[in-house]
Write a structure and sequence with these properties.
Largest sheet: 7 strands, antiparallel
CATH topology of the largest domain: C8orf32 fold
Order of helices and strands: EEEEEHHHHEHEHEEEEEEH
Strand content: 35-45%
Distance between the termini: 19 Å
CATH architecture of the largest domain: Roll
Number of strands: 13
Helix content: 10-25%
Domain Transglutaminase-like: 171-241
CATH class of the largest domain: Alpha Beta
Number of domains: 2
Number of helices: 7
InterPro entries: Bac_transglu_N, Papain-like_cys_pep_sf, Transglutaminase-like
Protein name: Transglutaminase family protein
Radius of gyration: 20 Å
Length: 300
């Protein structure tokens, strides 16, 4: 699938801002199954300083500094990219989940995804919720499949319920939240069992109701989970939709939790109160893509 993604963020301030420093993580990752063309980044007012780097987790980060007085800040990223279906692990690497937990504890690069992070803590209540999916000896994939399904079936999507500050245990108790909450919840459950799990930030192509037109700007950022499969790699799950991500899930970046991959964060001098407006559009497009598809399928 080929897409054009437009992600626009605008801040309107109650008082003048004389200086701001910001980091934007709005450039999708290049992966074996996701080819990313150049991203056009439009920032108003024009930054006095800007540069790009790669963070600790391998995500592309654009740093910029606006050094003129302004009452609003607008950041718009436009990217064309192509996706293929994700690879799946072969059956022979799908061992029992206890072995996977032991493997994570012995592997330094996995430990950071096994321990507590700012938005996700290991909790007895999370382990208890996950326990029915992970009886002793069950395969890792069967356990995670079941947990993914249970979250999807047991929780209600409610955009009015939570905020960034809502604790995972509150989401567990209320059985409601949004994609970010469900991703944090599932990560907390997996880590409470000793497994390595990370937060994936990205976009999901949404489809309009039958007979209705697509509305530009009506899409949204999305979040899901990846769990580490020993001797293979990271396998993604989308608890909000009870599915395994495919071509319609576009990966922006990943980290321990949301705090590692916010689309935009920064500090400013002045501004006072502000209003925030975010618009995302994931638009399917036509275009050449055979070379990428053939190369990926042949292992190039």
């Amino acid at each position: 699938m080929r897409y054009r993604v437009r992600h626009s963020t605008r801040y309107d301030y109650a008082a003048p801002v004389s200086l701001c420093h910001n980091e934007a993580r709005v450039v999708p990752r290049a992966l074996s199954w996701q080819r990313v063309d150049d991203t056009a980044l439009d920032i108003v007012p024009r930054p006095a300083v800007s540069h790009q780097r790669v963070d600790f987790f391998g995500n592309r980060v654009n740093f910029f500094s606006v050094q003129e007085i302004h009452m609003a800040l607008s950041v718009t990223a436009t990217t064309c990219l192509e996706t293929l279906g994700r690879p799946l692990p072969p059956a022979e690497v799908d061992g029992d989940w206890q072995s996977a937990a032991r493997h994570a504890s012995r592997t330094p690069e996995l430990r950071q995804f096994q321990l507590d992070s700012p938005f996700v803590s290991r909790e007895t209540a999370l382990r208890a919720f996950a326990a029915p999916s992970f009886p002793a000896g069950r395969s890792l994939r069967d356990g995670v499949d079941d947990l993914n399904r249970r979250i999807f079936e047991s929780f209600t999507y409610d955009p009015e319920f939570s905020s960034l500050a809502t604790p995972v245990l509150t989401v567990l108790e209320a059985r409601r939240g949004v994609c970010q909450d469900f991703a944090h919840l599932m990560i907390g459950c997996l880590r409470s069992l000793g497994l390595s799990a990370r937060y994936v930030s990205g976009y999901l192509e949404t489809l309009p109701p039958p007979g209705q037109p697509r509305l530009v700007g009506a899409d949204a950022s999305h979040a899901w989970v990846a769990v580490h499969i020993p001797n293979w790699g990271w396998l993604e799950y989308d608890p909000t939709n009870g599915s395994v991500p495919g071509e319609r899930h576009l990966v922006l970046g990943w980290g321990r939790d949301y705090g590692d991959v916010p689309p935009l964060k920064g500090v400013m001098n002045g501004g006072g109160a502000h209003e925030l407006e975010v618009a995302v559009d994931v638009e399917p497009i036509e275009g050449p893509g055979d070379d990428f598809r053939q190369g990926a399928l042949s292992g190039i």
